[in-house]
Design a protein that fits this description.
The complex is a heterodimer of chains A (205) and B (621). Chain A is mainly α and 205 residues long. In chain A, 41% of the residues lie in helices and 10% in strands. Chain B is 26% helix and 26% strand. The longest helix of chain B is centred in the middle third of the chain and has 22 residues. Classes of the chains: A mainly alpha (205), B alpha+beta (621).
């Protein structure tokens, strides 16, 4: 059988092996995913060691999750390259809520009132765009601050913090309910459309 | 032709279109299926397609700089229908057609000639109001075929049983033009339904069998439909006929070009004034550009919906961004209070008036620009009072009641429809006004029927009506909402400054039902062979008792209105050009729901010889 995927160049492989070595060593979830022979939906990929070290992820978990989901869906459908989906979402947020304009602007020199006014534009527009395209629900239905006992916790869903030790079931206080993207509906790009153009330049005649 | 598999309800609205559909049940005893909405794929931005439940009724003629406006089913399209067209209306307004439907019922323009967009630049190929409607339907048909039929010719939308809604106030020619657009788009199995009736069917379908608890014999339902661009009213009476409950549409309102868009525009204007005043106070000068004005209108709509919604918020913040990429510092901000919205929208468009209030009519300026005949009085409640007073005697057997005749048609139930009426504050205001009027008459207040999803009810109701037509389920009877007359000018010596007296010959009575026809006795007309001959044409929504053939010589002002003229074009076949052929008229209401007028020669050259009388020709202006 002829391999469908072109082999990676040697130096890329060397770099990759180096990275993966440390990733496997320090990231339990990643290791678990590799360990499972087939790459499935994150839910199905149960790590062999429960209550192990949670994923070491940077703070804004929510945003990252959303982006991940989209990419995964698109990949499953073998549609456009994954960056297109991310760019589409970015274009959407820019179109409806001037998201990129806002982030790209230097806000340091402005007063809170000016930033507040702009934030309203961004908030109302981005919220509309988000709600129309991504259906989000909290990962945990309890109120924040409530005491919860985790019968079986998937490391994908729950991150343990504080005095993390011992075997489950763990009991603790819910600090953040988390977000789960239930459905993602991204616009379809027309053939020939350049997704890299997040916002067109405008010239008034 | 294959048998249709679905009933499809199409709401061809002034500002939005929607499609609802339901499979035709093969088993008569089964519960009727619930109509579903079709998500309509459309361009929402350059090169971006999304499926949405509403298709904005906008048409954008793409410029060469836009490139092709590809759709999944057509890669080289040069125009856009839907959300992207609406958005381009902000950036390049001269290339966008909006409110095509209002042009379709504009009596003094030729609705088959290419006049839209009005004032378009020279490189834009204009289209007619009929073609604009056709393009919207075409998009809906293509979207359906793409999503549902997927290449199966039996499932194509043109092969399904389609119910298309029109405003109740559309006259015979506007209905005819709507069907013309539908046939041009390829629809074959077509029925028209009035929008307020569709809203009522949606309510019936929603309630299932329990609706009979809410509406019983003797009830009079007023449907108040205030959409984005137009307001449309109808009255439906529940009558006991030999022990069976019959629903009858007894009155419809005039065509009023007044809706939510007017309200948003007013509010935006108010906010702009306020922003300018605030800036001046702070010693700055402020002028909004066009783009900021449009953003302001969107923001004002949001604020309106918030403040007229649950009634808790006291004020809403409005922020509009500048056009450049600089957002912070370039954003304008203000606040709008509940009182301001109350004054502008609730009291401005829905003032508390007594039942004797009538919409103000300004004398038209001598030089009117050719545009849409927008309502001259923005007070919806005044239009409503006028409708109820006009049709005070509309109820079957209404005059036979003892005591003094009612001054108003007295509704006992109210059903709201249209995006504007989603606001509970506005619903309360309208219901309150009507209750006060009923109180003046010594009648009990009317109860509000709770409708569902006021934006989509018309499409859903149209599909529900399609199901009711096929099998069981109650139907609203109504027939034509007007009586129609041909004007015959009397042969009198011309007197300068005096119009010759016109006799109105009734050719179709009020309430003429679908599938019936009538020969107009008396009133022979002379038609010249090989020439287009025009006749004046009139309609009345209040003269309920004129039979076919009645010759009316005098009528009260406002009782009969002149419509676009009608035209007979006699082919020369078998006759000498220039001959005058005496004809009589024959009228019928087709199964589709349009009025058909035919000229029947007194001395036919062949069996069943007759010619169609064209209803929608260019009006006299």
């Amino acid at each position: 059988m002829v391999p469908l995927v072109a082999p990676l160049p040697f130096f890329t492989r060397l770099w990759f092996a180096w990275v993966v070595f440390f990733k496997v060593l320090f990231d339990g979830v990643f290791a678990a995913k590799i360990f499972t022979p087939q790459l499935e939906e994150p839910k199905g990929a149960e790590p062999p060691k429960l209550g192990g070290e949670p994923a070491e992820k940077p703070a804004p978990v929510v945003v990252e999750k959303v982006v991940e989901k989209i990419v995964e869906r698109v990949v499953e459908k073998a549609g456009p390259p994954p960056t297109d989906a991310a760019l589409q979402l970015l274009a959407l947020l820019q179109r409806e809520g001037r998201f990129v304009d806002f982030l790209e602007e230097d806000v340091a020199s402005f007063g809170d009132a000016d930033i507040g006014a702009a934030a309203r534009v961004v908030h109302s527009g981005c919220r509309k765009a988000l709600r129309e395209h991504v259906k989000l629900e909290p990962v945990r239905s309890e109120d924040e601050g409530a005491k919860v006992t985790l019968a079986e916790a998937s490391p994908n869903e729950v991150k343990l913090t504080g005095n993390v030790q011992g075997k489950g079931p763990h009991t603790g206080v819910l600090r953040h309910r988390g977000w789960r993207a239930v459905t993602v509906q991204l616009p379809t790009a027309v053939a020939g459309h350049d997704a890299r153009i997040v916002a067109q330049a405008e010239v008034e005649l | 032709m294959s048998t249709p598999r679905y009933v499809v309800g199409i709401d061809l609205g002034t500002t939005h279109c929607a499609i609802a559909y339901a499979p035709i049940p093969t088993d008569d005893t089964a519960e009727p299926p619930v109509p579903e909405m079709l998500s309509i794929p459309q361009l929402v931005a350059q090169g971006t397609i999304e499926a949405r439940e509403l298709l904005p009724s906008f048409f954008y003629v793409a410029h060469e700089s836009d490139g092709p406006q590809s759709l999944p089913w057509d890669e080289s399209r040069t125009y856009v229908v839907g959300e992207h067209a609406r958005a381009r209306g902000v950036d390049a307004p001269a290339r966008v057609i909006a409110s095509a439907k209002s042009w379709l019922c504009h009596p003094s323009v030729d609705r088959r000639s290419a006049i839209l967009p009005p004032g378009a630049p020279e490189d834009v190929e204009r289209i007619s109001p009929v073609e604009a409607s056709w393009r919207y339907l075409e998009h809906l048909i293509e979207a359906w075929d793409h999503v549902v039929a997927k290449g199966d010719p039996d499932l194509a939308l043109t092969k399904q049983s389609v119910v298309l809604t029109v405003p109740a106030s559309f006259d015979a020619s506007a209905r005819e033009l709507t069907t013309e657009a539908a046939y041009a788009a390829g629809l074959e199995d077509l029925t028209l339904l009035e929008e307020p009736q569709a809203a009522f069917y949606a309510w019936l379908a929603n309630r299932g069998d329990t609706w009979r608890k809410d509406v019983t014999a003797g009830d009079v339902v007023l449907v108040v439909d205030v959409g984005g661009g137009t307001s449309d009213f109808s009255v439906i009476a529940a009558v006991d006929k030999g022990g069976e409950l019959v629903l009858e549409r007894v009155a419809v309102g005039d065509h009023i070009l007044l809706g939510g868009d007017n309200m948003d525009m007013l509010l935006a204007h108010m906010v702009e004034q306020k922003m300018v005043a605030e800036a001046e106070e702070a010693g700055r000068s402020l002028e909004l550009d066009r783009w900021q004005r449009i953003s302001l209108q969107h923001a004002a709509r949001g604020a309106k919906e918030k403040l007229l919604g649950d009634g808790k918020a006291k004020s809403a913040q409005i922020a509009i961004a500048g056009k450049g990429s600089k957002l912070v510092g370039g954003t304008l901000r203000t606040e709008i209070t509940r009182e301001e919205v109350q004054a502008a929208i609730v009291d401005g468009f829905f003032p508390v008036v007594d039942s004797a209030a009538r919409p103000a009519v300004r004398a038209r300026a001598a030089l009117t620009q050719l545009g849409l005949p927008y309502a001259q009085d923005p007070a919806v409640t005044k239009h409503l009072a006028a409708l109820l007073a006009r049709h005070a005697e509309a109820l079957p057997g209404g005059e036979a009641k003892k005591g003094k005749a009612p001054k108003l048609l007295q509704p006992t139930r109210i059903l709201f429809n249209g995006g504007v009426m989603k606001s509970p504050v506005l619903r309360e205001r309208v219901a309150g006004c009507i209750d006060a009027w009923l109180g003046e008459e010594g009648a009990e207040g009317a109860r509000v029927l709770e409708g569902a999803d006021l934006d989509l009810a018309v499409a859903r109701g149209a599909a529900a009506y399609g199901l009711a037509r096929l099998g069981r389920g109650i139907r609203i009877r109504g027939g034509t909402a007007r009586a129609y007359y041909v004007g015959i000018e009397g042969a009198v010596p011309a007197v300068p400054g005096m119009e010759p007296p016109v006799t109105a010959l009734c050719v179709a009575p009020f309430g003429m039902e679908e599938g019936t026809s009538a020969d107009v006795a008396g009133g022979e007309l002379g038609v010249i062979v090989g020439e287009r001959v025009n006749f004046r044409f009139f309609g009345s929504s209040v003269r309920r008792k004129d039979p076919v053939g009645a010759a009316i010589e005098r009528w009260k002002k406002d009782e009969i209105e002149e419509l676009a003229p009608i035209e007979v074009d006699l082919p020369t076949e078998g006759r000498a050009k220039g001959d005058v052929v005496p004809v009589t008229l024959r009228s019928s209401v087709t199964e589709v729901g349009t009025l058909l007028l035919e000229a029947v020669p007194l001395e036919p050259k062949k069996k069943d010889e007759r010619w169609k009388v064209e209803l929608s020709v260019r009006g006299s202006d």
